[in-house]
Design goal:
TIM Barrel; about 50% helix; alpha/beta; 2 domains; eight-stranded parallel beta barrel
C-alpha cells in the first residue's frame, strides 16, 4: 500500500503538511496549565506590527481601542460588527503565525447575528473571541452602571457561538476559541458571575473571563473554581482589577492575561505631549537618534524591507534603485 492511498480515517499529505491555524496555535498555548500567555492590546496596523516585532506570541484587539481609533468615540456600544470585523481581519492578516484574540462585545444581536459574527471572525482567521452578557448598548467593563441581560439570553449567545463554530468546523474546517465573558460581578456578585461562566463552559465555551474582579483573593478563588478550564485576566491600570504582573497572574492560576489599554495610554500620553509642545513652542524637539533613523524606522516596522524583498523575488523592479 503506498502513501497516496486514502480512506475515511487517513490524512492526506497536504493535510499533514498544512501549517497550524491561528486557533490551533492558541489552543496549544492554553493547553499548558502551568504557563500563561501575555497579550498586549493593539488597535491598528502600527500597534499590531510593533507588538509582533517585540516577539509576543499572541496579541489582543481591544474594542475600546477600535472605537477610539476608528470612530474617535468612547467604548459605549457604538462600534458595529462590521467595524470590529474589518479591523480584526486586517490585524490578523499581518502575521498568520501570531494568534489574534479579538473583542466581539455582545455578539451584536440575537442568535442569528451572533452566528454571523462568529463565522465572520473565523473566515478572517481570528484565533479567539470573547462574548459578554451586557445589553447591546454596552460599555467598557471597567466603567460603572453596566446593565446585564438575563441568564438565558446570555446562554443563547454562547450557544449560538458554539453552534456556528461547529457548522464551520464541519463545512470549512474553520475554528475559533470561544471566550465567555461575564460582567455580572458588579451588579449581581461573585456567585452569580461564576454560575454564568460555569454554564457557558458546559455549553461549549473554551475560556472563562470574569470581568472586573476586584481583589487578588477573588481572582484566586475564581481560578480555583475553574480548575482545568483556562481563565483570562483583564489588566486595566486604574480600573476595577488590581494591577498584576504576568507572573502574579500565573501564580493565581490564569493562563491568559490581556493588556487592552497598553498602547492606547502610551500613545495618548506621548502624542499629547508632542502636540502640546508644537502648539505652545512652535517646534518639536527631535533627538539625534530620531534624525539618524529617519522615516525608514517606522516603515521598517510595518514591513518595508519585506515588501522590497517580495517585489524582487517576484521579478519586480519598483525598488531596484533603492528607497
Amino acid at each position: 500500500m503506498n502513501g497516496s492511498h486514502t480512506n475515511g480515517s487517513s490524512v492526506s499529505h497536504d493535510q499533514m503538511s498544512r501549517p497550524m491555524s491561528a486557533a490551533s496555535r492558541l489552543r496549544a498555548m492554553l493547553s499548558r496549565p502551568d504557563q500563561i500567555t501575555a497579550c498586549p492590546g493593539v488597535y491598528d496596523g502600527l500597534t499590531a506590527r510593533i507588538a509582533i516585532a517585540q516577539g509576543f506570541p499572541c496579541i489582543y484587539m481591544t474594542g475600546a481601542g477600535t472605537a477610539a481609533s476608528k470612530l474617535g468615540m468612547p467604548d459605549l456600544g457604538l462600534v458595529t460588527m462590521n467595524d470590529m470585523l474589518a479591523n480584526a481581519a486586517m490585524i490578523a492578516s499581518l502575521d498568520r503565525t501570531i494568534p489574534l484574540i479579538a473583542d466581539a462585545d455582545t455578539g451584536y444581536g440575537g442568535p442569528p447575528m451572533v452566528s454571523r459574527t462568529v463565522k465572520g471572525y473565523i473566515s478572517a482567521g481570528i484565533a479567539g473571541m470573547h462574548i459578554e452578557d451586557q445589553v447591546l448598548m454596552k460599555r467598557c467593563g471597567h466603567l460603572g452602571g453596566k446593565e446585564i441581560v438575563g441568564r438565558e439570553e446570555y446562554y443563547s449567545r454562547i450557544r449560538a457561538a458554539v453552534m456556528a463554530r461547529e457548522e464551520e468546523r464541519s463545512t470549512t474546517g474553520g475554528d475559533i476559541v470561544i471566550i465567555a465573558r461575564t460582567d455580572a460581578l458588579q451588579s449581581f456578585g461573585f456567585d452569580e458571575a461564576v454560575e454564568r461562566l460555569k454554564a457557558c463552559i458546559e455549553i461549549g465555551a473554551d475560556v472563562a473571563f470574569l470581568e472586573g474582579v476586584t481583589s487578588k483573593e477573588d481572582a484566586k478563588k475564581f481560578t480555583s473554581l475553574f480548575e482545568g478550564t483556562p481563565c483570562l485576566l483583564n489588566n486595566v491600570p486604574g480600573g476595577a482589577t488590581p494591577d498584576m504582573t504576568v507572573e502574579e497572574a500565573r501564580k493565581l492560576g490564569y493562563r491568559l492575561i490581556i493588556y487592552p489599554g497598553l498602547a492606547l495610554n502610551a500613545v495618548m500620553l506621548s502624542v499629547t505631549a508632542a502636540y502640546k509642545e508644537l502648539h505652545e513652542k512652535g517646534s518639536v524637539h527631535v533627538s539625534d537618534d530620531q534624525l539618524k533613523a529617519g522615516v525608514k524606522r517606522m516603515f521598517n516596522v510595518v514591513g518595508l524591507q519585506e515588501c522590497i524583498a517580495f517585489d524582487a523575488k517576484a521579478g519586480g523592479t519598483s525598488y531596484s534603485k533603492g528607497v
